[in-house]
Amino acid sequence: MFEAKIKAEWEAIKNKDKKAYGDLLADDYQGVEVDGRGERTKIQVLNELVDGNVFNYTLWGYKLIPLGPDAAFVIYESTMQFPAQGPSALLRVYITELWMKRAGNGRKYITRKLM
């Protein structure tokens, strides 16, 4: 289930689909991205989505750590491909996400660290 939701998340990012991405994020989402600009809320990350330039991605190395019946910590790796912009068109990052079931749905509250 988590791999499918994470894949849907990355498809939304790649396609700049604010609705699909927003549907996966809890209202109190907090994220920290690899760009070093600090923490972001759900509104901030959705507003930045249109400026993203992820052309393709590969996800692998999933590790799931259950945190009880309604929460899990997911760790995985993503290699992002960007439109040809010189020799460094790939970026490989480790990602951590906290997924919590709330009010009977699988929406996530995510704290994400890209290292």
- Measure the end-to-end span: 24 Å
- Mean pLDDT across the residues is 84
Q: What is the count of β-strands?
A: 6
User: What is the percentage of strand-forming residues?
Assistant: 35-45%
The whole-angstrom Rg is 14 Å
What is the number of helices?
3
| Contiguous uncertain segments of 5+ residues | none
**Protein structure class:** alpha+beta
Query: How helical, in percent, are the residues?
Result: 10-25%
Q: Strand order across the biggest sheet?
A: 3-4-5-6
Largest sheet: 4 strands, antiparallel
> Element order, helices and strands?
HHEEHEEEE
- Principal-axis shape equals globular
Describe this structure in words.
The protein is α+β, with helices and mostly antiparallel strands. Helices cover 23% and strands 36% of the residues. The strands form two sheets. The protein has a four-stranded antiparallel sheet, covered by helices on one side. Strands 1-2 form a two-stranded antiparallel sheet. The two termini are 24 Å apart. The model has no long low-confidence stretch (mean pLDDT 84).
Briefly summarize what is shown:
By secondary structure, the chain is an alpha+beta fold. Helix content is 23%, strand content 36%. The longest helix has 13 residues, at 2-14.
Walk me through the topology:
Layout: H1 2-14, H2 18-24, E1 30-32, E2 39-41, H3 42-48, E3 56-66, E4 71-81, E5 90-100, E6 113-114
Antiparallel strand pairs: 1-2, 3-4, 4-5, 5-6
Brief descriptors of the model:
115 residues; alpha+beta; four-stranded antiparallel β-sheet; 6 strands; 36% strand
